[in-house]
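Re-running N-acetylmuramoyl-L-alanine amidase domain-containing protein to confirm reproducibility after the cluster update. Everything else is unchanged from the original entry.
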Amino acid sequence: MKLERRSVFGWGATAAGHAPCDRGLVIHYDSGNLGLHAKDHSACRTYWKNTRRFHMGPSRGWADLGYAFGVCPHGIVMEGRGAKRAQAAQPGGNTTWTSCTLMTGPAEDITPAAIEGVRQLRAWLRTNHGLGTGVRGHRDFISTSCPGDKAYALVRNGTFSKPPGSGGVEDDLIGLSKGSKGEGVEAVQEMVRLAGHGKALGRGGVDGIYGPGTAEGVRLCRKDVGSAAKAGYGDKITGHALAQLIAAVGKHQGGK
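Result of re-run:
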């Protein structure tokens, strides 16, 4: 992971207080289209400095840049408040989740490098700072367009939940079945949760183990979007089952 610490920007230690921030990663974006993907990385550094200046200025008055981390279109991770620090990013989750903003706007595609940067950041936080498995969008906490439809689609379909170096989400999810384990299963379980059937997962929740609860959650999701959903319809992730699972998430989230 290419990580640029606060010292790169001439900043000292953050004034933000310590907090667990261990439930998972929350994805954000910028409300304006920035075009940073077509510029030298120095423009990303300037953007990060300006964002901090704005957050600490008279219109916000925050103690520091609101986010824990940022990932630019070139895939470089930039430190904001850093790990395990209270944020000013997602109300209701500023001390329990870790924020990461993408330096893109609503009309801009999320670059493969940025996706890989988020995956690397998440893996690093999980290994070194005890981050949980969850991946959510800012709009999961309050009514907002953030992180934009394009980024939120990647939250919903498990793209950001995959380990570094992975291909598209379908590569790992299709073929998963009862008995499977790992982050691919976590991505399926997270979609079940986002589709409104988290209770089916049982006490284990998003634990990376494809058991009866996960199978039932998948079956219920398929039922939500018109499948006959007979017994066994949640036992394996086929291409059709994955498409229905993604559709179920969209249906549930769109109704909020």
